[in-house]
């Protein structure tokens, strides 16, 4: 089903509306497997990301049901967001299967999917459409920053290119979700306190649900004869910390997270550096 969604648009080369990148833009036969095959951190990050991204058809159905009646939102979710998110998953899967051919992606994904579906229900979305758009802004902030970090940190050129494409997509997704947040906020008038609570809530879920479940599935499939330790996921996060401190764009991420709060300019100038410093020391702790 995922492959059927993937049809790109063509650019004219003259600076007009950019086309969507496609799988054909990735030089799969040029992947330098020797540069990446022994990098366990990158392997876990890319494989886990592929699971989450390729499940986007489920997220899309949930959001379409949640936003039914708002045609512009629904149209973009179905024909823009879903297309690009699923393409991310398909591309990342292909990269994993090329760079680490011994990894049984399909089996590991089935394990992930069976556990993760409990977190993908319409009933678990935010209580209002405006606040759900805030949650989506949090997710797109995280993914755009993650893929930019991956692009900067990867020792393998094809992965750098792929992660760069995905990061740009995720920034554009953020812009759309923020636009829809403003659209719904004019109707619903959420308070800054409500928005802040949703920001914090969704930040916690990204780590407790999305990343943790994906890590578990990759770990069990890659080393099936070893029991999963209770602290293994946290140990992995700590191991990624040096990469994040070198390559994660903390200030940009904090600005994106704070934008739905619509703080006064002077408050933003104070909060962004403070938030960036806290994130730099707390991310992956």
Description:
It contains twelve helices and no strands. It has helices spanning 2-5, 33-36, 40-54, 56-66, 71-99, 105-116, 129-153, 157-188, 192-222, 232-247, 250-258, 265-282. The longest helix has 32 residues, at 157-188. Residues 1-17 have low confidence and may be disordered.
What structural category characterises the helix and strand content? mainly alpha
Shape verdict? globular
Radius of gyration: 19 Å
Q: If you consult CATH, what is the topology?
A: Ribonucleotide Reductase, subunit A
**Total number of beta strands:** 0
Elements, N to C (H/E): HHHHHHHHHHHH
CATH architecture: Orthogonal Bundle
User: How far apart lie the N and C ends?
Assistant: 38 Å
CATH homologous superfamily title? Ribonucleotide Reductase, subunit A
Mean pLDDT value: 89
Query: How many distinct folded domains?
Result: 1
* Major beta-sheet overview: none
Low-pLDDT parts are: 1-17
Q: What's the CATH first level? A: Mainly Alpha
Indicate the proportion of strand residues. Answer: under 5%
